[in-house]
Amino acid sequence: MDAALEAEIQQKYTVETITDMKRWTDKLISFRLTRPAGFRFAAGQFARLGLPLENGGQAWRAYSMCSAEYDEFLEFYSIVVPEGQFSSRLARLQPGAEVMLDKRAMGFFQAERLPDGEDLWLIATGTGIAPYLSILKQPEVWQRFERIVLAHCVREAAELSFQDEIAALREHPLWREHGRKLQYLPVVTRNAPEGMLSQRVPALLQSGELAARAGIEMSPEHSRFMLCGNPKMVEDTHRQLMKMGYRMTRQNAPGHIVLENGW
């Protein structure tokens, strides 16, 4: 390898190996990478992953970590875009293939940015559930809040990935005494199974149906919200919450909402 190229690699990114690839549907995959010893991140942050292109260039995309801060691997969840420059190539890879990993984790989508409250609402569409899987592996999150609601909105029921993993979170030995606090609310907007929530999240907030299904009364005094996923959902949900009296958390002004809109 050219010495200059090797120096660039060592400075900006590492080359990691896929150790596991899971195909949830024909459009959804999750995968694990080896984790370099020096890589650090806070639950809720994302990493930039890269693949070489046939023309000699590189394609990079941002993915939130699903794995815990303390895991020995890095796990990610991705939608597969047909003919996409990155994800369609990624989906064809098998364990043993290599992916570039930017050395720096990025983002400020962290539960620590919210002031204390009684209820933490983790609202996601599609692959936006990924950072919550990492956040829910932090013992302090379970200790800070009395109730935690994970609402995952998808189009088809087959897209409700990680259900077994979510159920297992309640029994994790690091916070088993708090496991009862977690409530999982799946939302399916097309052909929803009987009894399942089936409207978009902003509509469920406006009607009060989301709170009613959780059995929790929302209020600015007690409720805190994290929003992640489709930019339209994030924008519309943010607007609806503002109408209900909630406000964004700012650097010097703690509020009720933090969001991730980096798609």
UniProtKB/TrEMBL annotation:
Its EC number(s): 1.18.1.2
Q: Which residues cross the membrane?
A: none
Under catalytic activity, the entry for this protein gives: 2 reduced [2Fe-2S]-[ferredoxin] + NADP(+) + H(+) = 2 oxidized [2Fe-2S]-[ferredoxin] + NADPH
Q: Output the InterPro entries linked to this UniProt entry.
A: Cbr1-like_FAD-bd_dom, FAD-bd_FR_type, FNR_bac, FNR_nucleotide-bd, FNR_type-1, OxRdtase_FAD/NAD-bd, Riboflavin_synthase-like_b-brl
**Name of one Pfam family that matches:** NAD_binding_1
The residue stretches assigned to a coiled coil in this entry are none
Instruction: Please state every residue range assigned to the domain named FAD-binding FR-type.
Output: 11-115
Q: Which GO terms describe its biological process?
A: cellular response to oxidative stress; heme catabolic process
Q: Does the keyword Glycosyltransferase apply?
A: no
**Record keywords:** Nucleotide-binding, Oxidoreductase
GO molecular function term, any single one:
ferredoxin-NADP+ reductase activity
Record-linked PROSITE patterns: FAD_FR
Q: Which family does it belong to?
A: Belongs to the ferredoxin--NADP reductase type 1 family.
- Family matches, as PANTHER family: OXIDOREDUCTASE FAD/NAD(P)-BINDING DOMAIN PROTEIN, OXIDOREDUCTASE FAD_NAD(P)-BINDING DOMAIN PROTEIN
Name used for this protein in its record? ferredoxin--NADP(+) reductase
